[in-house]
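Please predict the structure of the following assembly.
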Amino acid sequence: MVSATGVRALIDERGAEFEGYTFGFLDDMAKREIRRTILKAVAIPGHQVPFGSREMPIARGWGTGGLQITLACVGADDTIKVIDQGDDASVNAVNLRRLIAKTTGARETLTTGEATLIQTRHRIPEERMTAAQMLILQVPIPEPLRHVERSVAAARAMHAEADYARMWLALYEDVVRNGEVTAGAGYPVMVNGRFVMAPSPIPRWDIPKLNQAETLFLFGAGREKRIYAVPPFTNVQPLEFDDYPFEIEAFPNMSCRRCGATDSYLVTSPQADGSTLSVCSDTSYCDDVLAGRKVENQW
Amino acid sequence: MATDTSRAPRQTVVADQEQRAFRALLDAMSRPGTIHTLPEARGADGAWGSSLVVMQSLLDHEVTFAVEADDRSVHEQILRRTGARSDVLAAAGYVLTDAAHALDVIEMASEGYLEEPERSATVVVRVDAIGSGALRVSLSGPGIESVQPLSLDGLDVAALHALIERNAVYPTGIDIVLVDPQGRIACLPRSTRIELED
Amino acid sequence: MGYSSVRGGMDAIEHAETLIAAQVTDSDHPVALPQVTDHVELLLDQVMGEGGVYDLDLGALAVKQAEGDPIEAGFLLRAYRTTLPRVGYSFPSSGRQMRILRRVSSAFRDIPGGQVLGRTRDYTQRLLDFTLRDTPPKTPAPIGDIDALPSGAAPEEFPLVIDTLRADGLMHEAPRRTSDDEPFDVTREPLRFPSTRAARLQVLARGETGAMLSLAYAGMRGYGGAHGYIAELRYGDLPVQISHPITGGPVRIGWVPVTECYQVVGGDEGAQHTHDGTEDHEHVQGENPEYVVSYGIVVGRNERKAISMSILDGSLKKATKSGAAIEDEEYVMYHIDSIEAMGFVEHLKLPHYVDFVASVQRTSKVRELVAAARRG
């Protein structure tokens, strides 16, 4: 439990909690740099803006990019929610949320509708987010061209020229070989008609939510030191061929074993008796359905 | 919630102001042409007060700035408040100007490079009023559902023509933060299409 | 996964922390920090070097808390380092100012100032010493009859070997600094490619010993390494000087122990290199059969890494690339940082079940398509 030791270290080191640390762990200069980067990213939707990613008390690859954005944005009036795979109870989500809370005093919530800032890994909430909210996505590999061009410098040149021929070729070869585009989570998208962007490993189910949403999406890749953004009301289209249209995951004849929902992204676990158990990945949505609360889930 | 936050570090007054100013800027940049209000801040009064709040929330000694304005004391105040390094207009990362010099600034400020479009200037323009005035524009593009109207007072139409021209070759271009002395802000990022109304 | 309450997730983390804390402290023989600083010095040096913090107490604490895992300990130091304000900048420190404790050259039988073997295991027999099982409480007889350099010898006694080579005209002059630009700072700015040599050397200096050793070894076996000679491998203390707040002149505030390796790469090999430290790539192959230097510097005693670093520096400087991975700066610089690497590799422990559902659906779809095609 790498991340836990990191946090523990800070707590032990400083005697109690985060006394002696700055509000939001990051120093003011780091926050300012991240804020400047976020504003640039918003002004150039889908373009990866490099930033001086700081070392965090959480391991690289465990949400340091999202965490730096969250800590640079969060203020006294915010309510935060952190999810991993849609689940607030996932240990890494718990660990990130308590770090944010302990270093800022921000209110925490498990309810999508109550949060002003939601940090997430691999999911966009089922409940439609509003203009008063922001979604901060943790990103492992920000470069959508990485599998067709491993050089960062060369990929950058391709983005500069909007030269996505090799990306299209790779998708075409995929169709030829497999009969369809086989990308599952992290399906590449075109943002504002200009930049091909890695949406982070969200399932296809969540890709349409990025298009013309009311809310702002910020993407943080700590290890790769990149921040990018999709502003509200921005065109975000999956890369697709006319004769091989993009399709999302389907759960025919399935429902959540816990709440009965048939309109949410379901995840399955094998059971001891050989059957499988399907439940909502979004625990907040599942709670709402279970409690009979009506939430808007049409994005 | 389980986490005990009773001993969480407190935000200093200045840091709190900067964070609120940033969130106003983020909202404004995400939704071009919509009007947002800067926080009540220390030293925010006077003709340049709200402009300085914006500069202070973004600048420190890691970045460069330039000021194009008749009032020379503004330059000195930014140096003192932020520690940012002064640079020539064409190279500065952040530029503060009044409406009178906006045309020159928009024509001269850095637009970045195709490979690094983020290495361009953010230009803060002090205008007389945002949300009212003779200059009316219609905005569209990312951040705007269909069309966003915006009225401005004190900015010359030539400056907007220059901006449209500078931002024609997306993704290079400059991003504009409009500020008025009442603490209102609105943004015109390079991705925004601007149409002038009669 | 599952519908454990949030309280459950928090409980699990807190219990994990308790288990770790117990491992670190619960025994009849808890580790005292001086035991680390005095007797586990090589591990400590590696941790401080890769963590980017030179502080014996913090380093020892990190080693203790991480149960001796060098990467975890380096990570603890880095996470602490990031919270420290940068109060100022030191003056550049040159290897010429080193207070020498050890120096050897393999390119020459003897060198001005002489070879100083110093503290090394190189010529010991690697036999387990069973007498160490029951350590006597006091140190054995003092090291009386060794003519040691107890506090380091004065720098001027040991001129740099490469300076001699330069004086003999075998090597290019040291590059002049072309501007007053601040060196690129890899802890503040994201890497941009092609990078500067300053950025390369910083990344290499913070790189993980094992990763660098492995790449350098692959290079020596024919995968793009720079074949050279060790003109000088030295260990000692470098002065840290800052600007005096009143006079502005340099004032020494302490010493930092470092290991330096100067490798000279010469002849046809050398001709394929750009020159030391400059950004000029004008050099034409075969034009200038001089030696060039490949450099390694590491905090503390870590000769393995210093040599590996000099090999990687030499490979990255090659003007004519063979296409081998270790001549590719993106490949080397992105992959030798153990703290970034371990985070990303180990993040596979995090749940990925949402992605797996997405993957399974795509796989099923392809299977259906294949089956349909077979049916005709």
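The beta strands of chain C are 99-104, 229-243, 250-265, 292-299. The longest helix of chain C spans residues 353-375.
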